[in-house]
Amino acid sequence: MNNIHTPAVDYRLPPDRVPETITENLTDVERTSLIDRISGLLKRENAVVVAHYYTDPDLQRLADETGGYVSDSLDMARFGNESEASTLVVCGVRFMGETAKILNPEKRVLMPDLEATCSLDIGCPADQFSAFCDQYPDRRVVVYANTSAAVKARADWMVTSGSAVDVVRHLQTQGEKLIWAPDMYLGDYVKTQTGADMVLWQGSCIVHEEFKGAELQALKQQHPDAMVLVHPESPASVIQHADLVGSTTAVINAVKEMAAKKFIVATDRGIFYKMRQAAPDKEFIEAPTAGKSATCKSCAHCPWMAMNSLDKLAHALEHGKNEIHVGMDIIERARVPIKRLLDFSRQENQEIYGNNDA
Ligand code: 13P
Ligand code: SF4
Question: Fewest CB atoms within 10 A around its CB: which of 4, 142, 340, 352?
Fold first, then answer.
């Protein structure tokens, strides 16, 4: 990693703060009955389900079959903005619910579990981040979508994994020096791609950080016909073996567009549901993690994404529980960096959104 502008404090989440990954085990009868109940509640509440690609296939299927949406984090917010529903049920992690609320303050935003968060968000507390920014008053502040509303409120720009390189390149051409937060691996990747002058906050994603470069290289040798797809939250030692580095939407598009029949995938395994829909005749292999050894508590599956379940969704909708609230002052300030990204992408005619046509 390039350390020129790397401050000493490490904000990565210690493994003992990572919750166990618990998945919902339902019989077919229970699943069908829950889906029927939720479908009725969605109509009653004029609500729609907006789910991330990493959530359980049951939730993604439910969203698809009830007029909802499955996509990446920013596109989930865009869909919520365009939907006529008055309640958005966001299945994902808390920053996604907050972003939906920031862009749709007049709508009610519910989540199956408000404890579902993200190691990047936890590792970037707003007060510490603000103090960090104060040390570099001559730098523009660029934050990744995976941050709290309060951190976005302190930023000049928000970016997603699919737009980060273009936004940073744009700022660099304007002679801007930058603060980047919170993902140090994505920051390092963007810095390598652009050569921009960036001070990196030292946070990480506990899922992508566990992919292993040497083991990936060995797996690639066993499958020389496979293309390697890597999400840029992964370490540089993993990214160096990639045939394509991209956001969740980009890697799903790649399996449709690339001629290869086999893919090694370094991102959360929840994505295989959409990949299999997108390319049913192709083979997908999980990139290696530390397995049961070392610190891996999240091997290729985000424990916070796994907190979303049909049962909790039904409960939240039935009783109006788990509503996301963001203060109006924060909404107004946090909307600025988000809107900057939306305007930039429109001007550049850039495709930053996902799609739901897998
Ligand atoms: P995307 O915005 O690409 O969906 O990524 C969100 C995320 O949490 C990746 O780990
Ligand atoms: Fe956060 Fe990583 Fe989970 Fe994505 S996969 S929500 S970046 S902890």
Answer: 4
Label the pairing between strands 69-71 and 227-230. unpaired
- 120-200 shares its CATH topology with 208-286: yes
Query: 345 alpha carbon to ligand 2 midpoint, in Å?
Result: 24
What strand order describes the sheet that includes 244-245?
244-245, 227-230, 262-266, 283-286
Structural domain 208-286, CATH architecture: 3-Layer(aba) Sandwich (3.40)
Quick check: 267 and 235 in contact, CB under 8 A?
no
Per-residue pLDDT of 154-165, as tens digits, reads 999 999 998 999
Rounded-to-integer distance, Cα 210 and Cα 295, Å: 8
Please name the fold of domain 28-117+305-347. Answer: Rossmann fold (3.40.50)
Question: Which range, of 14-28, 63-77, 172-186, averages the lowest pLDDT?
Answer: 14-28
What is the CA(29)–ligand 1 centre distance, in A? 32
Contacts of 352 (CB under 8 A, 6+ apart): 74, 160, 162, 163, 341, 345
Residue extents of the structural domains in the chain: 28-117+305-347, 120-200, 208-286
pLDDT, one tens digit per residue, over 226-240 is: 999 999 999 999 999
Query: Residues lining ligand 1, judged by CB closer than 6 Å?
Result: 72-73, 145-146, 160-161, 205, 233, 247-248
The class level of CATH for 120-200 reads alpha beta
Cα of 14 vs centre of ligand 2, distance in Å, is 15
